[in-house]
């Protein structure tokens, strides 16, 4: 069975869905191929913090209504060390900028609903996706659905299929360069139907390891603790999780913590990763397919947003004006912003976590970095401008 589209998008996560919606609104035909069911994609609990640029893109995609009604604007967050706590005033340090607390699950649901309303083509449960003839003017995708093999002829293919997807792997190894740093720990995350301990996020460094208090709404909390990579979810009962979290938080925060049964519990390893180039022939990588950051700086989804923004404008320029400058510059432009998000995420991870192999010298530098942050307006400004997101 053969079909045809202008842009074939692999991956129905936030990156793929957002691009699909934006292109559709400009009359550019596209098909999204997703390996899993919609329920499965929506069951993954991931990002909670969106930068201004991402929120703007949601509005441009005509998907911002619920986010604007239910998302919370946060103008600051706390960094804690032991019993010391310092508020980072995002608004004051960035000329009034802020972030939006709105879960990835919710925004993905909004994008799916928007796609359905416009009869967008999103095909779930596709198997065996393969990319072909990427260097030619007629690239195509094949996939299996039951016993049928289906071929989609495209002008362009977008690889938005996350870190474990097939798109990046379709770039020949003598072209692809991969830069990777794996951290010797992961984050154990718990979602609970409890009142958040703090109206603003608390990033806490302690002798026992890192902890983060985040939220999805005023009745839904999200907490994380740093754990060794050898731990599994089964090693952590709810009681053990709450006990350990309390030990890592300043006393006033720990005393105010409301605990309850977990409704989701998972461990995510921490990794920094960049693939270069982000274009191969007529295939373009976007989002986690091309780059991963440790979640400490809340940059992952927000880095995907700039890729989608650049690709969207480049494709519109191609189809509306015959101008390919944006497509030709995409990889270089996207990577320039991505490396800044990599640097920031690495820095924030290094500042706040306990590294099992660190030497006394490293620990002294870490303490000094934190003291500098707590005492310098310039250091706080640098943290704030990176956290709210550098301009696209
Ligand atoms: P996704 O979300 O991984 O979606 C890719 C989709 O592609 C599908 N797929 C395939 N489809 C067809 N064929 C194949 N062969 C396929 N292989 C895979 C997958 O099923 C999937 O549906 O990538 P995308 O769209 O680029 O989105 C990236 C974000 O999900 C990610 O960057 C963020 O979640 C990272 N992240 C955070 N980012 C933020 O900006 N702010 C945060 O506060 C934040 N917190 C987090 C996070 C990630 C976390 N984890 C679990 C890694 C917190 C955590 C704990
Ligand atoms: C989350 O709420 O899941 C979250 C918030 C901030 C981060 C990472 C994750 O830096």
Describe, in plain words, how this protein is organized in 3D.
An eight-stranded mixed beta sheet has the order 7-6-15-16-17-14-18-21. Strands 9-3-2-13-20-19 form a six-stranded mixed beta sheet, covered by helices on one side. Strands 1-12-11-10 form a four-stranded mixed beta sheet, with no helix packed on it. The chain starts with a strand and ends in a 5-residue tail after the last helix. The chain folds into two domains: 2-74 and 97-180 and 271-349, FAD/NAD(P)-binding domain; 184-270 and 354-388, D-Amino Acid Oxidase, Chain A, domain 2, CATH 3.30.9. The mean pLDDT is 96. The protein has helices spanning 14-25, 38-43, 52-60, 65-70, 90-93, 104-117, 238-248, 251-256, 300-321, 325-352, 360-375, 377-387, and strands at residues 2-4, 7-10, 30-33, 49-51, 72-74, 76-81, 84-89, 99-101, 121-123, 127-132, 140-145, 148-153, 156-159, 177-192, 202-205, 211-217, 220-227, 262-276, 279-280, 283-285, 291-292. The longest helix has 28 residues, at 325-352. The protein contains twelve helices and 21 strands. It has 392 residues and is α/β, with parallel strands linked by helices. Helices cover 37% and strands 29% of the residues. The structure holds 8-demethyl-8-dimethylamino-flavin-adenine-dinucleotide and P-hydroxybenzoic acid (PHB). Residues 47-49, 201, 214, 222, 295-296, 298 line the site of P-hydroxybenzoic acid. P-hydroxybenzoic acid binds next to loops.
């Amino acid at each position: 069975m053969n079909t045809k589209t202008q842009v074939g998008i692999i991956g129905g996560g936030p990156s793929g869905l957002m691009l699909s919606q934006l292109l559709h609104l400009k009359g550019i035909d596209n098909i999204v191929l997703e390996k899993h069911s919609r329920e499965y994609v929506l069951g993954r609990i991931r990002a909670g913090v969106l930068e201004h640029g991402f929120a703007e893109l949601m509005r441009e995609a005509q998907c911002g209504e619920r986010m604007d009604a239910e998302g919370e604007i946060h103008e600051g967050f706390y960094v804690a060390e032991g019993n010391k706590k310092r508020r980072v005033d995002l608004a004051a340090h960035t000329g009034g900028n802020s972030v939006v607390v709105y879960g990835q699950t919710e925004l993905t649901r909004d994008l799916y609903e928007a796609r359905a309303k416009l009869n967008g083509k999103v095909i779930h449960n596709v198997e065996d996706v393969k990319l072909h003839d990427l260097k030619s003017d007629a690239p195509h995708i094949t996939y299996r659905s039951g016993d049928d093999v289906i071929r989609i002829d495209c002008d362009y293919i977008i690889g938005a299929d996350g870190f474990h997807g097939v798109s990046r792997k379709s770039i020949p190894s003598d072209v692809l360069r991969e830069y990777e740093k794996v951290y010797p720990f992961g984050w154990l995350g718990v979602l609970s139907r409890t009142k958040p301990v703090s109206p603003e996020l608390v990033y806490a460094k302690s002798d026992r390891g890192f902890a983060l208090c985040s939220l999805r709404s005023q009745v839904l909390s999200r907490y994380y603790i740093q754990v060794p990579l050898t731990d599994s979810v089964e090693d952590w009962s709810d009681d053990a999780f709450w006990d350990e979290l309390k030990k890592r938080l300043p006393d006033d925060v720990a005393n105010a913590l409301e605990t309850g049964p977990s409704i989701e519990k998972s461990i995510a390893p921490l990794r920094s990763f960049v693939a270069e180039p982000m274009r191969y022939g007529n295939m373009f990588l976007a989002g986690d397919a091309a780059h991963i950051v440790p979640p400490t700086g809340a940059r992952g989804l927000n880095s995907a947003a700039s890729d989608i923004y650049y690709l969207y404008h480049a494709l519109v320029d191609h189809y509306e004006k015959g101008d390919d400058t944006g497509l030709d510059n995409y990889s270089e432009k996207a990577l320039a912003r991505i490396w800044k998000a990599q640097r920031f995420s690495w820095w924030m991870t290094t500042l706040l976590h306990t590294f099992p192999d660190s030497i006394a010298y490293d620990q002294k530098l870490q303490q000094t970095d934190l003291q500098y942050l707590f005492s310098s307006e310039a250091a706080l400004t640098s943290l704030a401008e990176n956290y709210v997101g550098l301009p696209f």
